[in-house]
Amino acid sequence: MLGPVILAASRSDRMRRLISAAPVTKPVVDRFIPGETVDQVVPIIRDLTGKGLEVTMDVVGEDITTPEQSYAARDAYLELIERMRELDLGTRAEMSVKLSMFGQALEGGHELALANVRPVVEAAAAIGTTVTLDAEDHTTLDSMFAIHEELRKDFPQTGCVIQAYLFRTEADARRLAESGSRVRLVKGAYKEPAEVAYQQKAETDKAYVRILRILMEGEGYPMIGSHDPRLISIAQELARTAGRKLDEYEFQMLYGIRGDEHVRLAAEGHRMRVYTAYGTDWYGYFMRRLAEKPANLLFFARSILTK
Ligand code: FAD
Asked: What range(s) does the Proline dehydrogenase domain occupy (predicted)?
């Protein structure tokens, strides 16, 4: 019940100002967003990759309002990639981007987002790695898939995300499950209407399995973005029956969630990539993490009350 309320708050400017300014928020935020600057996050990349994990780095931010902010977002990624060059991790460290942060919702936003993301993808390719386009709310997806297709003409390794809770996603998965594609499947983290998305968790979970089967039986490279233990064992089974080797798919989880599981799966020989977000504009990302698990909200509320 609380999830939709928190997701509605994640789009409220008033709540953004209130929560972002509260000093007690910071320790709770740090669990999910372990730094604000590249300097703070480089040791985290070293630590995770030193444990045999891989990373996908996200500079937090979304729903910007001016083109200048979109250029700043592009530059933040370029700065990150420049630092990654020194780490020389190849595809063990890749990037995840949200096109709304690159200006997608502004006037002429489709072209602006494409113009901003292209140099980031180029810079990533120049250091031997790739970029994955995150999936945001359903109104943004046609534009995201068109940008993905455009980028893949020059950079076929560019990945994208699909969301199991959307009715459209089975068809998207069939289209995307082709040779050379990289597709991350997640349940979906936004508040979506009943016209376009399943509203019950059980329906989303069933759809997740159907879509994962399409990806596993297809020709592309599936990236399983979930912390759900049931789905993780189903994914292992589907990979086995599809005859996939351990390096022909990967698991992905978020920094700060089920960390023991990251290490356990990697120790079993799986590729495990940790989605690691950093930066100052953490509000939307943080609120979605609260909405996914109401216990997080209780922890957050307790930290406020005990101050
Ligand atoms: P759930 O059933 O929600 O969770 C399973 C278990 O995991 C829970 O019981 C709990 O133990 C643990 N858990 C899950 N979430 C939390 C949390 N916040 N705090 C503490 N414990 C938790 N969504 C998008 O819409 N677009 C994207 O581009 C996108 N990218 C993602 C990238 C990665 C690598 C991952 C892992 C998720 C991404 N998501 C994205 C979020 C996703 O849609 C889900 O909201 C999120 O992963 C929770 O779903 P779950 O599959 O983990 O299953």
From this structure: 45-299
